[in-house]
Amino acid sequence: MKLLKDNLEQRFYSFDATTLADGAYYLKIVASDMASNPPDKALKTERESERFEVGNTPPVVFESQNNFCCYAGRNDSAISRASG
């Protein structure tokens, strides 16, 4: 597990997903009020996101046999006849 940011005070946080490798990820959010309360009164909660996929590898278009043009993406592929 990699910590993206710690001790945030802002209500929103964004990050550049292009820095992540292709694959499946979960985000875990941890919130607490420890900074403004004594340790015995502080509250903390956590929530984990649903799984999501990051795919930063660009698709590839190439020419195949029989005048077919092929597209290859990360999780799918499609083949269609080239026109002309």
How would you describe this protein?
- It is a single chain.
- The chain has no helices and 7 strands.
- It has 84 residues and is mainly beta.
- The protein has one domain (17-81).
- A 3-stranded antiparallel β-sheet has the order 5-6-7, with no helix packed on it. It has a two-stranded antiparallel sheet with strand order 1-4. Strands 2-3 form a two-stranded antiparallel ribbon.
- Strand 5 and strand 6 (68-72) form a beta hairpin.
- It is rod-shaped.
- Mean pLDDT is 81; it is low at 75-84.
Q: Pick out the low-confidence regions.
A: 75-84
Percent in strands: 35-45%
Quick one: overall form?
rod-shaped
Oligomer: single chain
Strand order of the largest sheet: 5-6-7
Note the main sheet. 3 strands, antiparallel
Helical fraction: under 10%
H/I helix tally: 0
Mean pLDDT score: 81
Keywords:
disordered C terminus; 84 residues; mainly beta
How do you describe this structure in short?
This protein is mainly β and 84 residues long. It has no helices and seven strands.
List the helices and strands and how they pair.
Layout: E1 23-25, E2 28-32, E3 44-48, E4 52-54, E5 60-63, E6 68-72, E7 77-81
Antiparallel strand pairs: 1-4, 2-3, 5-6, 6-7
